[in-house]
Amino acid sequence: MSLFFNLIGLIVFIIISILIFTPYFNKYRLLKNPENRNSSYYMSQEMFFLIFIICTAPFFFGQFSLIKYGFYFLVLINLLITGRINIRIDLIVGVYLLFFLWLVVTSVYSQSYYDAILLLIKYIMPLLSLWLGYSAIRGRYDLYYCLKYIAKYAVFYALLIGGVSAVFMPWLYFSPIGNMFLKYAGLADYFTAIFIVFFILHWITRRKKYLFGAVWLLLSTLLEVVRTGLGGMTLVVGLFVGSRYKLKSIPYIAVAAILFIGIILYVPSVNEKFFGPNAGQMQVVDFINGDALSLDNIQTSGREFLWNLVIAKFYEPSPIIGAGLGTTSHFVKMRALDINAPALLHNDYVQILCDTGIIGLVLISLFYFAVVVKVFAYVWRRHVDFWVKVCGIMSVASLAGTAFSMGFDNVVSHSMTSLIIPFIFIGFFLKFIELSKYDTLSK
Protein backbone atom coordinates (compact mmCIF):
# COMPACT_ATOMS: atom_id res chain seq x y z
CA MET A 1 0.00 0.00 0.00
CA SER A 2 2.83 2.43 0.88
CA LEU A 3 4.48 1.62 -2.45
CA PHE A 4 1.28 2.56 -4.28
CA PHE A 5 0.86 5.89 -2.45
CA ASN A 6 4.52 6.79 -2.99
CA LEU A 7 4.26 6.07 -6.71
CA ILE A 8 1.05 8.08 -7.08
CA GLY A 9 2.57 10.94 -5.10
CA LEU A 10 5.68 10.99 -7.28
CA ILE A 11 3.59 11.05 -10.47
CA VAL A 12 1.48 13.95 -9.14
CA PHE A 13 4.66 15.80 -8.10
CA ILE A 14 6.15 15.49 -11.58
CA ILE A 15 2.92 16.47 -13.35
CA ILE A 16 2.45 19.61 -11.24
CA SER A 17 6.11 20.59 -11.71
CA ILE A 18 5.70 20.42 -15.48
CA LEU A 19 2.34 22.21 -15.50
CA ILE A 20 3.77 25.16 -13.58
CA PHE A 21 5.65 26.15 -16.74
CA THR A 22 2.54 26.04 -18.94
CA PRO A 23 -0.20 28.67 -19.41
CA TYR A 24 -2.51 26.44 -17.34
CA PHE A 25 -1.04 27.78 -14.09
CA ASN A 26 -1.22 31.48 -15.06
CA LYS A 27 -4.44 31.96 -13.10
CA TYR A 28 -2.73 30.80 -9.90
CA ARG A 29 0.14 33.22 -10.41
CA LEU A 30 -2.15 36.28 -10.26
CA LEU A 31 -1.92 37.39 -6.62
CA LYS A 32 -3.25 40.31 -4.62
CA ASN A 33 -0.87 43.12 -3.86
CA PRO A 34 -0.46 42.82 -0.05
CA GLU A 35 -0.18 46.62 0.28
CA ASN A 36 -3.11 47.41 -2.01
CA ARG A 37 -5.77 44.69 -2.20
CA ASN A 38 -7.40 46.43 -5.15
CA SER A 39 -4.44 45.69 -7.40
CA SER A 40 -2.73 42.44 -8.39
CA TYR A 41 0.57 41.26 -9.79
CA TYR A 42 1.89 38.16 -11.55
CA MET A 43 4.29 35.93 -9.70
CA SER A 44 6.96 34.52 -12.01
CA GLN A 45 6.76 30.86 -12.99
CA GLU A 46 10.22 30.34 -11.51
CA MET A 47 9.05 31.65 -8.12
CA PHE A 48 5.91 29.53 -8.29
CA PHE A 49 8.08 26.48 -8.96
CA LEU A 50 10.47 27.44 -6.16
CA ILE A 51 7.61 27.72 -3.67
CA PHE A 52 6.29 24.36 -4.83
CA ILE A 53 9.72 22.77 -4.30
CA ILE A 54 10.15 24.15 -0.76
CA CYS A 55 6.59 23.38 0.30
CA THR A 56 6.80 19.80 -0.98
CA ALA A 57 10.33 19.21 0.37
CA PRO A 58 9.19 16.75 3.10
CA PHE A 59 7.63 14.49 0.44
CA PHE A 60 10.19 11.69 0.25
CA PHE A 61 8.36 8.98 -1.72
CA GLY A 62 10.36 6.17 -0.11
CA GLN A 63 12.10 3.99 -2.67
CA PHE A 64 11.25 6.52 -5.41
CA SER A 65 13.17 9.35 -3.74
CA LEU A 66 16.07 9.13 -6.21
CA ILE A 67 13.62 9.70 -9.07
CA LYS A 68 12.45 12.88 -7.39
CA TYR A 69 16.05 14.03 -7.01
CA GLY A 70 16.80 13.18 -10.64
CA PHE A 71 13.72 14.98 -11.94
CA TYR A 72 14.40 18.11 -9.88
CA PHE A 73 18.02 18.10 -11.06
CA LEU A 74 17.00 17.82 -14.73
CA VAL A 75 14.43 20.62 -14.39
CA LEU A 76 17.04 22.93 -12.87
CA ILE A 77 19.55 22.10 -15.61
CA ASN A 78 16.88 22.77 -18.25
CA LEU A 79 16.02 26.14 -16.67
CA LEU A 80 19.72 26.97 -16.61
CA ILE A 81 20.27 26.03 -20.26
CA THR A 82 17.17 27.91 -21.45
CA GLY A 83 18.23 31.06 -19.62
CA ARG A 84 15.43 31.12 -17.07
CA ILE A 85 17.99 30.74 -14.31
CA ASN A 86 20.69 33.39 -14.28
CA ILE A 87 24.15 32.56 -12.99
CA ARG A 88 25.39 34.97 -10.31
CA ILE A 89 29.02 34.76 -9.22
CA ASP A 90 30.21 36.54 -6.07
CA LEU A 91 32.36 35.76 -3.04
CA ILE A 92 29.87 33.25 -1.61
CA VAL A 93 29.29 31.40 -4.86
CA GLY A 94 32.97 31.49 -5.72
CA VAL A 95 34.01 29.77 -2.50
CA TYR A 96 31.30 27.14 -2.86
CA LEU A 97 32.45 26.48 -6.43
CA LEU A 98 35.97 25.85 -5.09
CA PHE A 99 34.52 23.36 -2.63
CA PHE A 100 32.50 21.65 -5.37
CA LEU A 101 35.48 21.50 -7.75
CA TRP A 102 37.46 19.77 -5.01
CA LEU A 103 34.62 17.25 -4.70
CA VAL A 104 34.95 16.59 -8.43
CA VAL A 105 38.68 16.04 -8.03
CA THR A 106 38.21 13.61 -5.13
CA SER A 107 35.62 11.64 -7.09
CA VAL A 108 38.41 10.61 -9.50
CA TYR A 109 39.99 8.32 -6.89
CA SER A 110 36.72 7.25 -5.26
CA GLN A 111 36.18 3.58 -4.48
CA SER A 112 32.57 3.90 -5.66
CA TYR A 113 31.90 6.04 -8.72
CA TYR A 114 28.15 5.50 -8.36
CA ASP A 115 28.10 6.98 -4.85
CA ALA A 116 30.46 9.76 -5.96
CA ILE A 117 28.10 10.80 -8.77
CA LEU A 118 25.10 10.76 -6.43
CA LEU A 119 26.94 13.01 -4.00
CA LEU A 120 28.02 15.38 -6.76
CA ILE A 121 24.38 15.79 -7.76
CA LYS A 122 23.34 16.35 -4.15
CA TYR A 123 26.08 18.95 -3.66
CA ILE A 124 25.39 20.81 -6.91
CA MET A 125 21.64 21.11 -6.26
CA PRO A 126 22.11 23.70 -3.47
CA LEU A 127 24.08 25.91 -5.87
CA LEU A 128 21.47 25.51 -8.61
CA SER A 129 18.80 26.31 -6.00
CA LEU A 130 20.70 29.47 -5.04
CA TRP A 131 20.64 30.61 -8.66
CA LEU A 132 16.95 29.67 -8.89
CA GLY A 133 16.20 31.82 -5.83
CA TYR A 134 18.26 34.67 -7.26
CA SER A 135 16.46 34.47 -10.62
CA ALA A 136 12.94 33.90 -9.30
CA ILE A 137 12.57 36.82 -6.93
CA ARG A 138 11.70 40.24 -8.33
CA GLY A 139 10.69 42.20 -5.25
CA ARG A 140 9.25 42.24 -1.76
CA TYR A 141 5.85 40.88 -2.81
CA ASP A 142 7.45 37.69 -4.11
CA LEU A 143 9.34 37.37 -0.84
CA TYR A 144 6.23 37.89 1.26
CA TYR A 145 4.12 35.29 -0.55
CA CYS A 146 6.98 32.81 -0.67
CA LEU A 147 7.50 32.99 3.10
CA LYS A 148 3.78 32.99 3.76
CA TYR A 149 3.25 29.74 1.84
CA ILE A 150 6.26 28.12 3.51
CA ALA A 151 4.88 28.97 6.94
CA LYS A 152 1.40 27.73 6.08
CA TYR A 153 2.60 24.34 4.87
CA ALA A 154 5.07 23.95 7.76
CA VAL A 155 2.26 24.36 10.28
CA PHE A 156 0.28 21.70 8.41
CA TYR A 157 3.23 19.30 8.33
CA ALA A 158 3.80 19.73 12.07
CA LEU A 159 0.26 18.48 12.59
CA LEU A 160 0.21 15.77 9.91
CA ILE A 161 3.62 14.13 10.26
CA GLY A 162 5.24 15.92 13.21
CA GLY A 163 5.33 15.37 16.94
CA VAL A 164 1.65 16.08 17.48
CA SER A 165 0.67 13.34 15.06
CA ALA A 166 3.33 10.93 16.40
CA VAL A 167 2.12 11.29 19.99
CA PHE A 168 -1.62 11.85 19.65
CA MET A 169 -2.49 10.41 16.19
CA PRO A 170 -0.11 7.47 15.58
CA TRP A 171 -2.73 5.91 13.28
CA LEU A 172 -2.10 8.82 10.89
CA TYR A 173 1.63 9.13 11.53
CA PHE A 174 2.31 5.50 10.61
CA SER A 175 -0.32 5.30 7.84
CA PRO A 176 0.55 4.81 4.13
CA ILE A 177 -0.07 8.53 3.63
CA GLY A 178 2.27 9.41 6.50
CA ASN A 179 4.94 7.14 5.05
CA MET A 180 5.11 9.32 1.91
CA PHE A 181 6.99 11.91 3.97
CA LEU A 182 10.42 12.19 5.53
CA LYS A 183 9.65 12.27 9.24
CA TYR A 184 11.37 12.51 12.61
CA ALA A 185 14.99 13.75 12.18
CA GLY A 186 14.53 14.60 8.48
CA LEU A 187 11.44 16.67 9.22
CA ALA A 188 13.15 18.32 12.20
CA ASP A 189 16.04 19.35 9.92
CA TYR A 190 13.50 20.84 7.49
CA PHE A 191 11.84 22.74 10.34
CA THR A 192 15.25 24.01 11.46
CA ALA A 193 16.01 25.33 7.97
CA ILE A 194 12.69 27.21 7.69
CA PHE A 195 12.28 28.12 11.39
CA ILE A 196 13.61 31.62 10.70
CA VAL A 197 10.72 32.24 8.28
CA PHE A 198 8.24 32.70 11.13
CA PHE A 199 10.39 35.35 12.83
CA ILE A 200 10.96 37.16 9.53
CA LEU A 201 7.21 37.19 8.84
CA HIS A 202 6.53 38.56 12.32
CA TRP A 203 9.16 41.24 11.69
CA ILE A 204 7.57 42.19 8.37
CA THR A 205 3.89 42.04 9.34
CA ARG A 206 3.93 42.47 13.15
CA ARG A 207 1.39 39.66 13.39
CA LYS A 208 1.77 37.50 16.50
CA LYS A 209 0.31 34.45 14.78
CA TYR A 210 3.71 33.81 13.23
CA LEU A 211 5.33 33.60 16.66
CA PHE A 212 2.68 31.04 17.61
CA GLY A 213 3.59 29.19 14.41
CA ALA A 214 7.23 29.08 15.53
CA VAL A 215 6.15 27.66 18.89
CA TRP A 216 4.05 25.07 17.05
CA LEU A 217 7.09 23.86 15.09
CA LEU A 218 9.19 23.81 18.25
CA LEU A 219 6.49 21.75 19.97
CA SER A 220 6.54 19.24 17.12
CA THR A 221 10.29 18.75 17.44
CA LEU A 222 10.03 18.62 21.23
CA LEU A 223 7.32 15.97 21.24
CA GLU A 224 9.43 13.75 18.98
CA VAL A 225 12.50 14.53 21.12
CA VAL A 226 14.77 15.34 18.17
CA ARG A 227 17.91 16.68 19.89
CA THR A 228 19.49 18.03 16.71
CA GLY A 229 16.32 19.92 15.87
CA LEU A 230 16.12 21.50 19.32
CA GLY A 231 19.75 22.60 19.16
CA GLY A 232 19.40 23.91 15.61
CA MET A 233 16.26 25.89 16.40
CA THR A 234 17.92 27.45 19.45
CA LEU A 235 20.85 28.51 17.26
CA VAL A 236 18.49 30.01 14.67
CA VAL A 237 16.70 32.09 17.32
CA GLY A 238 19.99 33.25 18.80
CA LEU A 239 21.33 34.37 15.43
CA PHE A 240 18.10 36.13 14.52
CA VAL A 241 17.84 38.22 17.66
CA GLY A 242 21.60 38.80 17.74
CA SER A 243 21.64 40.00 14.13
CA ARG A 244 18.56 42.17 14.47
CA TYR A 245 19.06 43.70 17.92
CA LYS A 246 22.87 43.43 18.31
CA LEU A 247 23.85 44.24 21.95
CA LYS A 248 20.22 44.67 22.92
CA SER A 249 19.72 40.99 22.11
CA ILE A 250 21.75 39.69 25.06
CA PRO A 251 18.73 39.31 27.38
CA TYR A 252 16.75 37.50 24.65
CA ILE A 253 19.65 35.16 23.89
CA ALA A 254 20.01 34.46 27.61
CA VAL A 255 16.31 33.57 27.83
CA ALA A 256 16.62 31.25 24.80
CA ALA A 257 19.66 29.55 26.37
CA ILE A 258 17.89 29.13 29.70
CA LEU A 259 14.84 27.70 27.94
CA PHE A 260 17.03 25.26 25.99
CA ILE A 261 18.83 24.10 29.14
CA GLY A 262 15.53 23.88 31.03
CA ILE A 263 14.01 21.64 28.35
CA ILE A 264 17.03 19.33 28.48
CA LEU A 265 17.06 19.14 32.26
CA TYR A 266 13.39 19.08 33.18
CA VAL A 267 11.55 17.40 30.28
CA PRO A 268 12.05 13.70 31.17
CA SER A 269 11.90 12.32 27.61
CA VAL A 270 14.42 14.88 26.38
CA ASN A 271 16.72 14.36 29.36
CA GLU A 272 16.72 10.60 28.83
CA LYS A 273 17.37 10.99 25.09
CA PHE A 274 20.31 13.31 25.73
CA PHE A 275 22.05 11.48 28.56
CA GLY A 276 20.84 7.86 28.43
CA PRO A 277 21.97 5.99 31.57
CA ASN A 278 23.08 9.30 33.11
CA ALA A 279 19.60 10.82 32.79
CA GLY A 280 18.63 12.85 35.84
CA GLN A 281 22.21 13.24 37.04
CA MET A 282 23.14 16.42 35.16
CA GLN A 283 22.68 19.76 36.90
CA VAL A 284 22.75 23.40 35.81
CA VAL A 285 26.33 23.70 37.02
CA ASP A 286 27.37 21.04 34.50
CA PHE A 287 26.12 23.27 31.68
CA ILE A 288 27.94 26.27 33.13
CA ASN A 289 31.18 24.30 33.28
CA GLY A 290 30.64 23.11 29.71
CA ASP A 291 30.75 19.42 30.58
CA ALA A 292 27.10 18.51 30.10
CA LEU A 293 27.05 18.68 26.29
CA SER A 294 30.40 16.98 25.69
CA LEU A 295 30.39 13.72 23.71
CA ASP A 296 31.54 11.95 26.86
CA ASN A 297 28.19 12.67 28.50
CA ILE A 298 25.76 12.83 25.56
CA GLN A 299 24.28 9.56 24.40
CA THR A 300 25.30 9.13 20.76
CA SER A 301 23.35 5.88 20.20
CA GLY A 302 26.44 4.13 18.83
CA ARG A 303 27.22 6.87 16.32
CA GLU A 304 30.58 7.74 17.87
CA PHE A 305 31.79 4.17 17.29
CA LEU A 306 30.96 4.38 13.58
CA TRP A 307 32.54 7.84 13.31
CA ASN A 308 35.78 6.57 14.82
CA LEU A 309 35.66 3.50 12.58
CA VAL A 310 35.44 5.41 9.29
CA ILE A 311 37.93 8.03 10.45
CA ALA A 312 40.48 5.31 11.18
CA LYS A 313 39.73 3.51 7.91
CA PHE A 314 39.51 6.41 5.44
CA TYR A 315 40.78 9.67 6.96
CA GLU A 316 43.88 8.64 8.87
CA PRO A 317 45.58 6.86 5.91
CA SER A 318 45.18 10.02 3.78
CA PRO A 319 44.30 13.01 5.99
CA ILE A 320 44.99 15.74 3.42
CA ILE A 321 42.93 14.52 0.43
CA GLY A 322 40.78 11.75 1.92
CA ALA A 323 39.73 8.44 0.39
CA GLY A 324 37.62 9.84 -2.44
CA LEU A 325 34.08 11.17 -2.68
CA GLY A 326 31.45 8.50 -2.02
CA THR A 327 33.90 6.03 -0.47
CA THR A 328 32.62 6.43 3.08
CA SER A 329 28.92 6.28 2.21
CA HIS A 330 29.54 3.17 0.10
CA PHE A 331 31.35 1.48 3.00
CA VAL A 332 28.58 2.40 5.46
CA LYS A 333 25.91 0.95 3.13
CA MET A 334 27.83 -2.29 2.57
CA ARG A 335 28.50 -2.63 6.28
CA ALA A 336 24.82 -2.05 7.04
CA LEU A 337 23.87 -4.91 4.71
CA ASP A 338 26.33 -7.25 6.42
CA ILE A 339 25.21 -6.55 9.98
CA ASN A 340 21.58 -5.55 9.25
CA ALA A 341 21.98 -1.99 10.56
CA PRO A 342 20.83 1.43 9.27
CA ALA A 343 23.03 2.70 6.44
CA LEU A 344 23.43 6.11 8.06
CA LEU A 345 26.54 7.89 9.33
CA HIS A 346 24.68 10.76 11.03
CA ASN A 347 27.49 13.26 10.47
CA ASP A 348 28.11 14.99 7.15
CA TYR A 349 31.35 16.55 8.39
CA VAL A 350 32.87 13.19 9.24
CA GLN A 351 31.91 12.04 5.75
CA ILE A 352 33.45 15.15 4.17
CA LEU A 353 36.61 14.65 6.22
CA CYS A 354 36.94 10.97 5.30
CA ASP A 355 36.07 11.45 1.62
CA THR A 356 37.82 14.74 0.84
CA GLY A 357 40.30 15.17 3.68
CA ILE A 358 41.29 18.32 5.49
CA ILE A 359 41.10 20.27 2.21
CA GLY A 360 37.38 19.51 1.84
CA LEU A 361 36.58 20.40 5.44
CA VAL A 362 38.54 23.66 5.19
CA LEU A 363 36.75 24.63 1.97
CA ILE A 364 33.24 24.04 3.36
CA SER A 365 34.27 26.03 6.46
CA LEU A 366 35.49 28.86 4.22
CA PHE A 367 32.09 28.84 2.51
CA TYR A 368 30.34 29.32 5.86
CA PHE A 369 32.81 32.09 6.70
CA ALA A 370 32.19 33.81 3.35
CA VAL A 371 28.41 33.83 3.94
CA VAL A 372 28.83 35.30 7.43
CA VAL A 373 31.28 37.96 6.25
CA LYS A 374 29.16 39.10 3.29
CA VAL A 375 25.86 39.06 5.18
CA PHE A 376 27.11 41.01 8.17
CA ALA A 377 28.98 43.43 5.93
CA TYR A 378 25.48 44.54 4.86
CA VAL A 379 23.39 43.81 7.95
CA TRP A 380 25.57 45.87 10.28
CA ARG A 381 25.66 48.92 8.03
CA ARG A 382 23.83 51.92 9.38
CA HIS A 383 22.05 52.65 6.11
CA VAL A 384 21.06 49.47 4.30
CA ASP A 385 17.96 48.51 2.36
CA PHE A 386 15.45 46.85 4.70
CA TRP A 387 14.88 43.88 2.40
CA VAL A 388 18.61 43.26 2.02
CA LYS A 389 18.84 43.16 5.80
CA VAL A 390 15.85 40.83 6.11
CA CYS A 391 17.14 38.35 3.54
CA GLY A 392 20.67 38.51 4.91
CA ILE A 393 19.59 37.62 8.43
CA MET A 394 17.22 34.95 7.10
CA SER A 395 19.94 33.29 5.02
CA VAL A 396 22.65 33.26 7.69
CA ALA A 397 20.29 31.98 10.40
CA SER A 398 18.90 29.23 8.16
CA LEU A 399 22.41 28.23 7.08
CA ALA A 400 23.63 28.12 10.69
CA GLY A 401 20.77 25.85 11.74
CA THR A 402 21.34 23.57 8.74
CA ALA A 403 25.11 23.53 9.31
CA PHE A 404 24.45 22.46 12.90
CA SER A 405 22.15 19.67 11.71
CA MET A 406 24.87 18.40 9.38
CA GLY A 407 26.99 17.58 12.42
CA PHE A 408 24.49 15.03 13.72
CA ASP A 409 22.24 14.02 10.81
CA ASN A 410 22.40 13.02 7.15
CA VAL A 411 21.45 16.40 5.71
CA VAL A 412 23.37 15.97 2.44
CA SER A 413 21.65 12.63 1.81
CA HIS A 414 18.32 14.49 1.96
CA SER A 415 19.60 17.68 0.35
CA MET A 416 16.24 18.53 -1.24
CA THR A 417 14.59 18.51 2.17
CA SER A 418 16.71 21.02 4.03
CA LEU A 419 20.16 21.70 2.51
CA ILE A 420 18.82 23.66 -0.48
CA ILE A 421 16.72 26.03 1.64
CA PRO A 422 19.43 28.33 3.06
CA PHE A 423 20.96 28.47 -0.42
CA ILE A 424 17.64 29.70 -1.81
CA PHE A 425 17.57 32.40 0.88
CA ILE A 426 21.14 33.37 -0.03
CA GLY A 427 19.92 33.76 -3.62
CA PHE A 428 17.19 36.13 -2.34
CA PHE A 429 19.84 38.09 -0.43
CA LEU A 430 22.08 38.50 -3.48
CA LYS A 431 19.14 39.59 -5.64
CA PHE A 432 17.93 42.22 -3.17
CA ILE A 433 21.44 43.66 -3.03
CA GLU A 434 21.13 44.31 -6.78
CA LEU A 435 17.55 45.56 -6.52
CA SER A 436 18.54 48.04 -3.83
CA LYS A 437 21.20 49.51 -6.16
CA TYR A 438 19.53 49.49 -9.55
CA ASP A 439 15.79 49.09 -9.03
CA THR A 440 12.87 50.40 -7.05
CA LEU A 441 11.12 47.08 -6.52
CA SER A 442 12.67 46.54 -3.09
CA LYS A 443 11.94 50.05 -1.86
The fraction of residues in strands falls at under 5%
Q: Tell how many strands the DSSP assignment holds.
A: 2
Oligomeric organization of the protein chains: single chain
* Shape field: globular
- The ordered string of helix (H) and strand (E) elements is HEEHHHHHHHHHHHHHHHHHH
Helices and strands: which structural class?
A: mainly alpha
pLDDT under 50 segments (min length 5)? none
Q: Count the DSSP helices.
A: 19
Largest sheet: 2 strands, antiparallel
- Integer average pLDDT: 86
Rg calculated over all Cα atoms: 22 Å
Give me the side-by-side strand order of the main sheet.
Answer: 1-2
- Helix fraction, binned, reads 55-70%
First-last Cα distance: 51 Å
Give the arrangement of secondary structure elements.
Layout (H helix, E strand, L loop, with lengths): L1 H18 L10 E4 L2 E7 L2 H11 L9 H17 L9 H17 L5 H24 L3 H21 L2 H6 L1 H4 L11 H21 L3 H15 L3 H19 L4 H17 L1 H8 L8 H6 L13 H13 L11 H13 L8 H32 L6 H21 L13 H19 L5
Antiparallel strand pairs: 1-2
Helix pairs in contact: 2-5, 2-6, 3-5, 4-5, 4-17, 5-19, 6-9, 6-10, 9-10, 9-11, 9-18, 11-12, 11-18, 12-13, 15-17, 17-18, 18-19
